[in-house]
Amino acid sequence: MTNHHEDTPACATTPDGSPAVPLYRTMRLIRRFEERCIELVKAGEIPGGIHPYTGQEAVAAGVCAALRADDVITSTHRGHGHVLAKGADPARMMAELAGRITGLNKGRGGSMHAADVSLGILGANGIVGAGAPIATGAAWAAARAGRDTVAVSFFGDGAVSQGVVLESFNLASLWRLPVLFVCENNGYSSTATVEDLVAGSITARAEAFGMPAASVDGMDAEAVLAATRVFVERARAGGGPAFLECRTYRFDAHHTWEYRSFVRYRTKEQVDEGRRRDPVRIQGERIPDAARARADDEVESVLASAVRFALDSPDPDPVDALEYLYATGLRPRAGVITSA
Predict the structure, then answer these.
(1) At a CB cut-off of 8 Å and minimum separation 6, what does 122 contact?
(2) Are the CB atoms for 179 and 239 separated by under 8 Å?
């Protein structure tokens, strides 16, 4: 497992102080992790499928690079990138997706509910917008305890119409909580366009609650990092919440079920146009060829080990299906669940 000192960001800088290479490595790790996951979905090793994060890597990498290891995040159904960027072990993450007992959550969370509280990852969430009140609550707890930690809530453009997100905006502003709301606007809520679902300006919704809001190029990791740093430093100093819209583009399917359903809601030409600004390539062109090659080789080695670890790990025993169901440790009566 990757661990970080609490005073250093999850994505450290190089000795010269530049984040360029670490940002690229994080983005390359996320991209290749997702590509390997898609292969495992097609092979039947990851049950249920995934929501690929390909194309949006600059958001997770840029935001998490501005955080300390003791800061916390909440994620979404499309959350692999956030979890990896915050420092989760790729091998245990891969095992979690494959439903193995060596996973981050012993295979019980899967793709949409992976968490590692020890790293400040309070969980991905399959319910749209549901991470916002969790992050707001974490920020409230930190403020009450006198800590200067910051909470970040990731969500998509579709979540800005969810009442629980707007309620979180209201409480965070009323109580001046150290929370940053990050909207990943990839242009689509599943298969519907943002223009068809969201009236008015996304940033104006946050501004209506008295918090500063900005919109940034979500295909540029360094631009995301710079904007995030401003808001995180403000929150850490007691300035209250803020909202960051990251304009990005999802390269792949909303969910891998699209590979079988052949649903069509955008043309190949639209996707090709969106792919022209590949965030991984953009960041890769900013670093020396040798550094890029080293990062690529390191990522391939890490992911090869992660896949082996996941596939070599045992499946859960059905007898243990109700473990962790009750906070009190209550166990079901004998015989309720038997091994297959």
Answers:
(1) 72, 73, 74, 115, 131, 134, 135, 138
(2) no
Q: How far apart are the first and last CA of the chain?
A: 32
| Chain-centre distance for alpha carbon 252 | 16
pLDDT tens-place string over residues 9-28? 445 555 566 899 999 999 99
Judged by DSSP in three states, 138 sits in helix
Helix, coil or strand: residue 234:
helix
Interatomic CA distance for residues 188 and 231, integer angstroms? 26
Predicted pLDDT at 263: 86
Contacts 24+ apart (CB under 8 A), 134-139: 134/74, 135/72, 135/73, 135/74, 135/168, 135/179, 135/181, 136/168, 136/171, 136/172, 136/177, 136/179, 138/72, 138/74, 138/179, 139/172, 139/177, 139/178, 139/179, 139/241
Asked if residue 59 lies in contact with residue 81, where contact means CB atoms within 8 angstroms, the answer is yes
Query: What are the tens digits of pLDDT across the range 220-263?
Result: 999 999 999 999 999 999 999 999 999 999 999 999 998 888 88
